[in-house]
Amino acid sequence: MILNYKMKNSLKNLISFFIQHPEFFQHLISFHYPFTYKQLLKYNSFIDRGKVVSNSSIEWNSEILRLFNDPEDWVFLTSNPSTLKSIKLIEEFHDKIEWKNQDQSLFTTISNNTGLPWSIELIEKYEHLWDYYQMSSNDCIPWTQGLIDKHLDGLDGTIRE
Questions:
Q1: Can you give the chain as a three-state secondary structure string?
Q2: Is the CB of residue 82 less than 8 Å from the CB of residue 53?
Q3: How many CB atoms lie within 10 A of CB 137?
Q4: Is the pTM here over 0.90, yes or no?
């Protein structure tokens, strides 16, 4: 009974805090809440889409990804390890994916995404699109000597050693 009272009091304090700091609440749920497709539609005017695209708690699927058409959104969706979990999604959104980044100081391309279903077949299917410099720092890629030899020119010097 005492625990129940403390929990209710803590919840009231939390709700009060969120009411007093709506921007913080918006940031928090946009970045961490596991929204569904219907919730994203319903709360579209409230959520921060710039944070939602980096949200790794969402069960990303084709329906949800189609809600995002802005190329700026796709910079973040592409590097979010929770978005492109299947080859089917990569194929479907192939034209929206951020494949190359001209500014090598930013690791925001699909090549650096640790959540992809990495395989030799996937690498070879899109071999003309990968940013091999960024791939060289991705420890989720199944590197083989043959793969390294084939793409040696594009790889970062650290993998050649």
A1: CHHHHHHHHHHHHHHHHHHHCHHHHHHHHHHHCCCCHHHHHHCCCCCCHHHHCCCCCCCCCHHHHCCCCCHHHHHHHHHCCCCCCCHHHHHHCCCCCCCCCCCCCCCCCHHHCCCCCCCHHHHHHCCCCCCHHHHCCCCCCCCCHHHHHHCHHHCCHHHHC
A2: no
A3: 14
A4: no
Q: Take residue 26 and report the two structure tokens written for it.
A: 């918006």
**Furthest-apart CA atoms within the chain: distance in Å:** 67
Q: Residue 94: name the closest of 102, 84, 104 by CA.
A: 84
pLDDT in tens, 129-159: 998 888 888 899 988 888 888 877 767 554 5
